[in-house]
Write a structure and sequence with these properties.
Shape: globular
Number of strands: 9
Helix content: 40-55%
Distance between the termini: 53 Å
Low-confidence stretches: 31-41
Mean pLDDT: 82
Structural class: alpha+beta
Radius of gyration: 20 Å
Order of helices and strands: HHHEEEEHHEHEHEEEH
Length: about 280
């Protein structure tokens, strides 16, 4: 990471500390600070931005080049965060001339992938324009290009989006929500089943209960839906008031699963070409 990126991450972390101090003052005592923090998350975007750049730094630490891009793919010196669930766009500006949300490009050996926040992905079960937001998503560039033009298609055409154009990684972030209920596991199961990310992550500010962790881990059993791995990650340490280190090997496992998926695709294409030649 360069100096500007490190500065941005430090600023985001600092904002969480300032938020704690502000709530502490309003509540006139430290005993009520934790309860106040768990009931407010700055609309979730501060934590979402911090998580996005934590992912970027994981790839940087593995020696994988990344860069901040504007929505049209051109390099940018600043990052525009998507403020709510929305479409992935390739235009640089909206009709008012304002910059559209950008993304982080990750340069893997087999081609670039894109890291986005709050993108609405197609519902692969219902179809016909139904969408679901993923707080964080990583996808291949062709998938992102197709998604950008998918939203405005006729509903009959929307059902034809290529089956391989799904998120490589989908992540849901729960900053202050109750992470001890079965309902959360059911919600995540439905989200994963309909958006079909190859890897699904649930990031929480407090450790999830065993039952929720088991529910999330079981999602990797939905291989027919394309889900190869799933897990919970605790992102924040309330005792130390700092980010928790992420599980070692997350980037390595991501690359391994992505590479295996590419090989399977190439074999399928080769098989189709061979069968076509044999028919001729």
């Amino acid at each position: 990471m360069d100096g500007e990126e490190i500065y941005l991450i430090n600023e985001l972390s600092g904002c969480l500390g300032e938020l704690r101090a502000l709530i502490n003052t309003k509540n006139e005592g430290k005993r009520r600070v934790q309860r106040a923090l768990t009931s407010y998350d700055g609309d979730g975007k501060l934590f979402e931005a911090l998580t996005l750049f934590r992912l970027k730094s994981l790839f940087d630490d593995h020696g994988i080049p990344t860069r901040i891009c504007q929505s049209d793919g051109s390099p940018s010196s600043s990052f525009v965060l998507r403020g709510g669930p929305g479409r992935l766009a390739r235009e640089r500006q909206d009709e008012r001339g304002l910059a559209l949300p950008g993304y982080i490009e990750i340069h893997l050996d087999d081609g670039p992938v894109e890291l986005h926040n709050s993108v609405e992905w197609p519902d692969r079960l219902v179809g016909y324009g139904a969408v679901h937001e993923l707080d964080i998503s990583i996808a291949e560039k062709p998938a992102c290009n197709e998604l950008a033009s998918w939203y405005d298609l006729d509903p009959r055409q929307q059902n034809r989006i290529a089956p391989e154009h799904v998120p490589l990684l989908g992540m849901e972030i729960k900053f202050h929500q109750n992470v001890a209920t079965k309902a959360l596991g059911r919600e995540m199961t439905g989200l994963a089943y309909t958006t079909c990310p190859v890897i699904f992550l649930l990031g929480t500010s407090m450790p999830a209960t065993e039952i929720v962790m088991h529910q999330i881990a079981s999602l990797s059993g939905m291989a027919r839906r394309g889900i190869r791995a799933s897990m919970c990650i605790t992102l924040w340490d309330y005792e130390e008031k700092r980010s928790r280190p992420w599980r070692e090997g997350l980037v390595r496992d991501f690359i391994k699963i992505w590479t295996k998926r590419l090989r399977e695709r190439h074999r399928a294409i080769h098989r189709e070409n061979r069968e076509a030649v044999e028919k001729v």
